[in-house]
Specification:
The strands form two sheets. A four-stranded mixed sheet has the order 5-4-1-6. The protein has a two-stranded antiparallel sheet with strand order 2-3. Helix 5 packs across helix 7, helix 5 packs parallel to helix 8 and helix 9 runs antiparallel to helix 12. The two termini are about 30 Å apart. The chain has 14 helices and six strands. The chain is α+β, with helices and mostly antiparallel strands and about 375 residues long. A hairpin with a 2-residue loop joins strand 2 and strand 3. The protein folds into two domains: about 140 residues, Beta Polymerase, domain 2; about 220 residues, no CATH class.
């Protein structure tokens, strides 16, 4: 199977995949196990240290099972898989204050989807990518049951919210994570543009080709090309630029893409981030979940997400009663706060954070902790 652009790397990843499958089969007998993410689309990242090949970031796998599987058990077995591979098994988003280490932060991320659910998936980037992923165990044709998927424009916005969080993690951290998130800033902002303009494709190699066809600055197209090569071939090392310089360029272009998408999506005329976020807070909750819920009139059902977030936050030691006093999804409020913080509107960022919690200091840490709780739920 092709997990990367390198035959040598593919052998190492197949060895790891065989170990993961063996562990998973101790606990469940799924209809199929699917390699998702970059490794599931011939776009996995790796580097060679002396003679040792090191896959980077994570292995993202879906178990297609007839019955639901608890998230806690998936997390537990994922950690067992990580340890069996000799990797740390923790998420940088959850441990954002720690210095990044390629081995410690590599993890096996297990998800499940029921066999029946394959036929009625939500219109997300994850669903689109799952349909085109590699089945590494079981029924090789099982993903053919999935319908054709048009990815919701909201997923473009979600991707960009996540990028701003990742930039905050990398800022002041090691050069390795700065380089990784700078590269991902370009590759994921390209994905966001392709989603928004209904041109999305799963493979990184194809995204580069599609982004060349869009009406975006030539400089941006060139950076997407450089970043994609770094991801696929060079273990996220960008040879053409100093790490800090490339990191700043990535932040600048993510800001450009975010502003372009959100202004067009919500018909916003102002270029001022405070004005943009004010309109986002007012308008976005009414349209953001429309494609996921199937109707623009069901926006109030976001209250379910508030309840889920409240309970998950409680599990992580956070008491957030304010989230139960509104139907607006706290993830959007936190995302808007993250935008303002990222674009140097810190007082305004705190104002929005106060809609979720009264405890806002230190601002960056509070914002990142609460956003990480929401992010790790992966509800949509």
């Amino acid at each position: 199977m092709k997990y990367t652009v390198s035959n040598e790397a593919d052998k190492k990843i197949q060895e790891d995949t065989d170990i993961i499958i063996k562990i998973v089969l101790k606990y469940w007998k799924p209809r199929a196990i699917v390699m998702f993410g970059g490794f599931g689309h011939e776009g996995g990242s790796f580097k060679k240290i002396n003679s040792k090949l090191l896959p980077l970031n994570d292995y993202d796998l879906y178990l297609v099972n007839d019955k639901p599987i608890s998230g806690e058990k998936l997390e537990e077995v994922g950690e067992e898989c990580s340890k069996a591979l000799g990797r740390g098994g923790i998420e940088i988003v959850e441990h954002f204050n720690e210095e990044y280490d390629e081995n410690k932060f590599f993890h096996v991320d297990l998800h499940f989807i029921t066999t029946d659910s394959l036929k009625k998936v939500m219109p997300t980037q994850r669903s689109f990518d799952l349909k085109t992923s590699l089945v590494v165990y079981g029924d090789k044709n099982i993903l053919n049951q999935m319908p054709d998927i048009k990815v919701s424009k909201s997923d473009a916005i979600r991707l960009l919210f996540n990028k701003l969080d990742h930039f905050q993690i990398a800022d002041g951290n090691s050069d390795i994570i700065k380089s990784i998130y700078a590269v991902k800033g370009f590759t994921d902002s390209a994905s966001a543009l392709l989603i928004f303009y209904n041109k999305y494709v799963s493979k990184y190699q194809d995204k580069v080709k599609e982004i060349q066809k869009l009406d975006v600055p030539e400089e941006y197209k060139k950076f997407v090309e450089i970043a994609t090569k770094a991801k696929l071939e060079n273990g996220y090392e960008v040879k053409e630029f100093d790490v800090d310089e490339f990191f700043e360029k990535s932040k600048k272009w993510v800001e450009y893409v975010f502003k372009r998408i959100i202004k067009e999506h919500l018909n916003i005329k102002s270029d001022n981030w405070k004005d943009i976020c004010k309109i986002m807070y007012k308008k976005l909750p009414y349209v953001y979940f429309k494609d996921y819920l199937g109707s623009k009139y069901l926006f109030f059902m976001q209250y379910y997400l508030n309840l889920k977030f409240f309970l998950e936050a409680k599990r992580k030691g956070e008491n957030l009663p304010k989230t139960l006093l509104t139907w607006k999804d706290p993830g959007l409020t936190l995302g808007i706060s993250m935008m303002l913080y990222s674009f140097n509107e810190k007082k305004e960022a705190e104002k929005y954070l106060k809609k979720v919690t009264s405890n806002t200091r230190p601002l960056k840490d509070r914002l990142m902790k609460l956003y990480s709780i929401y992010y790790l739920q992966k509800l949509v």
